[in-house]
Amino acid sequence: MEIDKKPGIYEELGVPRVINAMGTYTIYGGSKMSRQTIQDMNDAASSFVDLNLLQKRAGEAIARLTKNEAAYICNGAAAGIYLGLLAAVALHRGKKIRYLARQDFHDSEIVVFRSHRSPYDIILDQLGVSIVELAYSNHTLVSPKEDIEAVISERTAAIYFLESGWVAPGAPSLELTASVAKKHQLPVILDAAAMLPPADNLWNFTKAGASLAVFSGGKDLCGPQASGLIVGRKDLIDLLLESAFPKHGYGRFLKVGKEEIAGLYSALCQYLSADMGSRIQDAEDQVESACRLLNDHPYYLAARSYPNEAGQPIPRVLVKIRNAQTDEQQVLNYLSALTPPVIAAAAGKQSFYLNPMTLTKAEMEWICHQLLKFPFVQH
């Protein structure tokens, strides 16, 4: 299968184009942008513009589209969490962001549930705040309201909350957490980087009590990979508009260009008008086709797996290898050595996933036909 017959920049650099059967992983480029999004980014790139005004107008338009008070486009979900906590500290200290001193951060605390810790939350340390961990993974709090209140003090600036398919059980619900935070006039900064679809999450999380919800722009939204979206309370986002990029100060280094702002806005408009039911049906059809093809082979057992790795409501294919001499890494190595290479995820001993989220029907069928050619060692 030819991905792109016309040589381009990747070929010039000697970087092979791959077929992505893993999903919207950052390391493989997140997602693909539509022609409309690319066209709108090209249009934005062709002119100069007042970035302050563009950020403000785009945020106002996105707020209306997502049923939120305000919105702010940043350069990725991790940057969005940093900026959200920056605004929370400023609100806590009663200052505008540009007046914050290092001591203001040292005197501030962020409450985090231990089950919400991840490799990505290193961004929490970048502000210099103290992190107060609460509860344990896979352990339910006996009195969650009382336990949250027990760690809140005059130093507490916000509660960080993670929504993800990889979160271990143990933390209370967003609604309960938000109710305690509201009682103590604390913002809840919600990391929802990969929690689309459904599109309703763009407003359901803030409706459930999150003060700010942060999404990746380069995953299911199919916007520029170096973009992110913050939605929620106007008072917090107003602090960012006053002091974050393109202003000087703490948010200056988190630069988002006019192209990313236009591209994410365009992608969001398309996302909200898309037929999600049709898209999910396409994924179901791919899963059914893959199972039918692979289950005709004596050494494969393929089945529908739901939801996917990020907890999104999209099915994927779980393939188990029924050959004692073959493990999953051998098959994955075989796929990655094809032309073009296929990237797929291991699912444990002698099993792997095929994710239709980032595949076309033709690509899924081609992968399955290649799997049927794998040189199994006979019993």
Description:
There is one protein chain. The protein has a seven-stranded mixed sheet, sandwiched between helices. Strands 9-10-13-12 form a four-stranded antiparallel sheet. A two-stranded parallel ribbon has the order 1-11. It folds into two domains: 9-29 and 275-371, Aspartate Aminotransferase, domain 1 (Alpha-Beta Complex), CATH 3.90.1150.180; 35-273, Type I PLP-dependent aspartate aminotransferase-like (Major domain) (Aspartate Aminotransferase, domain 2), CATH 3.40.640.10. By secondary structure, it is α/β, with parallel strands linked by helices. The chain has helices at 9-13, 35-45, 51-65, 77-93, 102-106, 144-151, 174-183, 201-207, 234-243, 258-273, 276-294, 328-336, 361-371; strands at 19-20, 70-74, 109-113, 130-134, 156-162, 188-191, 212-216, 228-232, 300-305, 316-321, 342-343, 345-346, 351-354. It is built from 13 helices and 13 strands. The model has no long low-confidence stretch (mean pLDDT 94). Helix 2 (35-45) packs antiparallel against helix 10, helix 4 (77-93) crosses helix 9 (234-243) and helix 11 packs parallel to helix 13 (361-371).
